[in-house]
Amino acid sequence: MAETATLSKLLHIRENEKKEAKQAYHQSMDFFEGIATRLYTLLKRKENAEDSYDDCLSATSSVEIIKEQVAFIELLNNQIMNLQQQVQIARADMESKQMKLSDAYVEVKKFEKIIDTRKKSEEEMEIKREKASMDEVSIQQYLRYKNR
Fold first, then answer.
1. Is the separation of the CB atoms in 73 and 49 below 8 Å?
2. Helix, strand, coil content of the chain in percent (nearest 5)
3. Around Cβ 145, how many Cβ atoms within 10 Å?
4. Taking the model in full, what pTM does it have?
5. 123-148: average pLDDT
6. Which of 39, 69, 124, 129 is 20 to 30 A from 101 via CA?
7. Buried/exposed 23-56: b ≥16 CB within 10 Å, e otherwise
8. What does the alpha-carbon distance between residue 146 and residue 23 come to, in Å, rounded to a whole number?
9. How many C-beta atoms lie closer than 10 Å to residue 58's C-beta?
10. Taking Cα atoms as reference points, which of 82, 104, 97, 103 lies closest to residue 28?
11. DSSP 8-state code for residue 60
12. Dihedral angle of Cα 63, 65, 70, 73, to the nearest 10 degrees
């Protein structure tokens, strides 16, 4: 019984670690989603800018407007490249925290399984002791009855 109490304490510690890993994973996921959303917004703006640039090329527009369009698209490209790097870093961080969370789940399951196995073993030992005790009582009653 003392062994399962110790294991229960360890299980409690592992559950706290799992809870912390889960919280860290959700924070990294939220951070990733925020950066990915910003990247999506920039890509959408670039797409609109390129459409506007194509419209300028097909219509009669001044060279200054076309230069401004090209400069704006170039600026968006630089921002997109920076954000893509940040998205990759955020994704890697999120994936590593997901691995830690999976490991924490496995550790908790291990301790739960060990505790269950030990409890079943203790119950089986108790049943064996009760049966041995009942056999002893039956033998004693039989011997008393036979000696009369």
1. yes
2. 95, 0, 5
3. 8
4. 0.77
5. 93
6. 39
7. ebbeebeeebeebeeebeebeeebeebeeebeeb
8. 71
9. 8
10. 97
11. -
12. -170
Q: Residue 101 corresponds to which tokens in the numbers above?
A: 């969370």
Alpha carbon dihedral 94, 100, 103, 107, in 10-degree steps, equals: -140
Residue the block writes with tokens 């039956």: 138
pLDDT tens for 52-110 read 999 888 887 888 988 999 999 999 999 999 999 999 999 999 999 999 999 999 999 99
Report d(CA 67, CA 144) in Å as an integer.
Answer: 114
Closest by CA to 15, choosing from 112, 96, 98, is: 112
39, two tokens: 């990247």
Q: How far is CA 107 from CA 18, 19, 24, 99, in A?
A: 9, 12, 17, 12
State the amino acid at position 80 in one-letter form.
Answer: I
Cα 68 from Cα 79, distance rounded (Å) = 17
- Token reading at 17: 């670690």
Residue 1 pLDDT exceeds 70: no
